Amino acid sequence: MKNIFFIAALFVLTTNVQAQEGVSVKGNTITMKEIGPVWPGCEKSELSEDDCFNKQLAKHIKSNFKYPKDANGKIVRGRSVITFYIDEKGEVCKVSAEGPQKLVNQEAVRITELFPVMKPGHRGGKKIEVKYKMPFNF
After folding, report:
1. Which residue did the predictor score with more confidence, 42 or 16?
2. What is the spatial distance between Cα 129 and Cα 93, in angstroms, rounded to a whole number?
3. Contact criterion met (CB below 8 Å) for 68 and 138
4. At a CB cut-off of 8 Å and minimum separation 6, what does 5 contact?
5. Mutual orientation of helices 49-64 and 102-113 as an angle, nearest 10°?
6. 4-34: per-residue pLDDT in tens?
7. What is the tally of helices (H) and strands (E) in the chain?
8. Which residues contact 21 (CB under 8 A, 6 or more apart)?
9. 64 phi and psi, to 5 degrees?
10. Using an 8 Å Cβ cutoff, are 60 and 52 in contact?
11. For residue 111, how many other CB atoms are within 10 A of its CB?
């Protein structure tokens, strides 16, 4: 009798889990796929959401970028690695920059903080915070 209840409960749980987007069950392993944030307008794009995200990200950086200048008015060039998160509300947070040029780091952070509010990422139907780390070359 206990086996019948166990099998019935397992069937109900498996059926429920498979109904969630990005969740698959194979044997006794449950895999939950992480779905990244969606840039505004990418929901209706002909491109995949990831490709659209990357295209819109590049467009945003190009249209908002300003070469930083030092105290003498000379353009500062360099590389900065930005780490940021898109939180459960779809907002950019926890922005930090690493690189040898302080002015380049500041510009990379400024551009990143201008990202629009997005549709948040999710895993197993639950909104999640997603971490990004990417280089900026000026």
Report:
1. 42
2. 10
3. yes
4. none
5. 120
6. 433 444 444 433 433 445 666 667 776 778 8
7. 3, 8
8. 35, 122, 125
9. -110, -5
10. no
11. 19
Task: Report the distance separating Cα 17 and Cα 20, nearest Å.
Answer: 6
Determine the pLDDT at residue 19.
43
CA distance 65 to 82: 14
Q: Which of 5, 4, 32, 2 is nearest to 121 (CA)?
A: 32
Distance CA 82, CA 72 (A): 26
Question: What does the pLDDT look like over 47-89, one tens digit per residue?
Answer: 999 999 999 999 999 999 998 998 899 999 999 999 999 999 9
Structure tokens at 126: 């639950």
- How far is it, in rounded angstroms, from Cα 23 to Cα 81? 32
Token pair listed for 77: 């060039």
Residue 49 tokens, joined: 């959401």
How far apart CA 130 and CA 136 sit, in angstroms, is 19
Q: Strands 23-26 and 92-98: what pairing?
A: unpaired
Prediction pTM value: 0.74
